[in-house]
Write a structure and sequence with these properties.
Blueprint lengths: L3 E2 L4 E2 L3 E2 L8 E2 L10 E4 L2 H4 L7 H9 L3 E3 L8 H5 L1 H9 L2 E5 L11 E3 L7 E4 L1 H6 L11 H11 L1 H24 L5 E7 L21 H5 L7 E6 L15 H5 L4 H19 L1
Parallel strand pairs: 5-6, 5-7, 7-10, 10-11
Antiparallel strand pairs: 1-2, 3-4, 8-9
Helix pairs in contact: 2-10, 6-7
Length: 272
Amino acid sequence: MKTYDSENRTVRLAPCTYGLSRLSFRGPRRPTDGRYIAFLGGSDTFARYVPKPYCDLVAAATGEICVNLGCQSAGADVYLKDTALQTLRRDASATVIQVFGAANLSNPYYRVHPRRNDRFIAATPKLIALYPEVDFSEISFTGHLIARLRAVDEARFALVRTCLQATWVIRMHTLIADAASPVLLLWFASRAPDDKIHDTPAGDDPAFITLEMLDMLRDAADDIIEVIMPRGETEGMAFPPLDSLSAQNSLGVDAHFAAAKALRLPLTFGLS
């Protein structure tokens, strides 16, 4: 199947679904009635502008069936709330989970859409009491929400951020524990994990995740793979001119080759 339209310089995506899930994934659809590796992640796993994302490259290198379950702007919630995805995760022979940011998940301060985790649904009474001057009816996305809360009061926002970080650790532990097979966490980002707090609203860094938080998952996961590559490298990517900024904010072709190379041996060992 041709996936690259050279005339229009775009990737021809073939959306597909699995089971009774209402979510649409990057195709083509892969068989799930035998042995397969499940790949969970956000926009960089979905890889809208990359002709061959790391999931496909791992499949080519190992001969294993690799199922790309990446969702754009996903957080952990989308995989915990979708019953069909729970079954796919539990039946997988191995699972790779791209490390998500902490902004796109429901928490004691606000709720996000169960399938589009970057969509802000509502503030809880706790957030309304903390920020009585903010009109939350004007906000539709978590990135806008985070930016607004920080701009109004950095000290109060620190309370929200701490809550998001604690919620993220709990959700990631739940996601890992739910798997019945080896789980590899993939740190796929433009920075190395450290103890600084990176407040990227879109979660591309990934937002709010520190090395200490990642260390809390080391005993739960079978391995943590780190792939650090710069954003802005668009050579080999395919996108229309109007999407150039979005493409520059994505991890490029070289990053996907690096991720596939880093994952190949751990996955081979985990499946042996």
